[in-house]
Specification:
5-stranded antiparallel β-sheet, homodimer, 158 residues, alpha+beta, Thiol Ester Dehydrase, Chain A
Chain lengths: 158, 158
């Protein structure tokens, strides 16, 4: 990863894609969101969603995995180029999460992250605080998911 | 569930408790958040968290399950008493999610939900829109998680 100082406002990263199979949706729903429209095709067809669709919290969890994989990949790239990679700290939370459209079984969601702001941390001089706007877009180009995240980001040493 | 008209601002519901075992944390993290402090005790001890802790998105997923179970239980109670239960519609999203403290392996989190606002939907006359403030509290009484949710809630017919 680049250091806090190198981050450019407006920079967009494509984090990756995920195919939501019916089994993937049901496996999550059994443990975390056992509503019939996340568990059973026939019941989902009768619901306001009209077809089997993913729990909104699963759509968020997949964003997390793709972000983690992106950070690992960037870290490995920096090390391969002989640069010391910056590390990310914890996230204090996020704002304005929206589930804009259902994510149906068979959908492929592409996730994007755009850096929208950064400021130095007053209390933690090693860190900056970065805000990033994240979206999920389905194979029809429809935005299905978005939120505004915040994360601590390492500053360049010295 | 009660109908939209019967909901009282300020009413608090205890949704239930969940014990976060190390295996529960790791099983989620393998699929959705493969960072070392969610997967491995020794690596977590070296991290800024100091011990194995749950992915923040898993803390949210457990809230979802307990909310679903609460709604099912209230619906069954209404039917047993011969009342027609109200149904909940989809959630358009939520605001201001905060991960205030880590949820460590061995923690038991109790989740609460407080109704903080309601208004009639202009575009969907069958529904009201309800806001609810949700929290997770650990066994020491420390708040670890909170967010402000929104959900469509059925109005009394007629």
């Amino acid at each position: 990863m680049n250091y806090f100082e190198d981050l450019e406002i407006g920079h967009v990263v494509e984090l990756g894609q995920h195919y939501f199979s019916a089994d993937f949706i049901k496996n999550y729903a059994r443990v975390y969101d056992p509503q019939s429209f996340h568990l059973d095709e026939a019941a989902a067809a009768e619901s306001h969603f009209g077809a089997l669709c993913a729990s909104g919290w699963q759509t968020g969890g997949v964003w997390m995995r793709l972000m983690v994989e992106h950070v690992k990949s960037e870290t490995q790239k920096a090390m391969a180029e002989g640069r010391k990679p910056a590390t990310l700290g914890p996230s204090p939370g996020f704002r304005d999460l929206k589930w804009l459209k259902p994510v149906y079984a068979g959908d492929t969601i592409t996730y994007f992250s755009t850096i929208t702001g950064k400021r130095e941390s007053v209390s933690k001089p090693r860190w900056g605080l970065v805000t990033h706007h994240n979206t999920g877009v389905n194979q029809k180009g429809e935005r299905v998911f978005e939120f505004l995240g915040t994360v601590f980001w390492e500053r360049r040493p010295g």
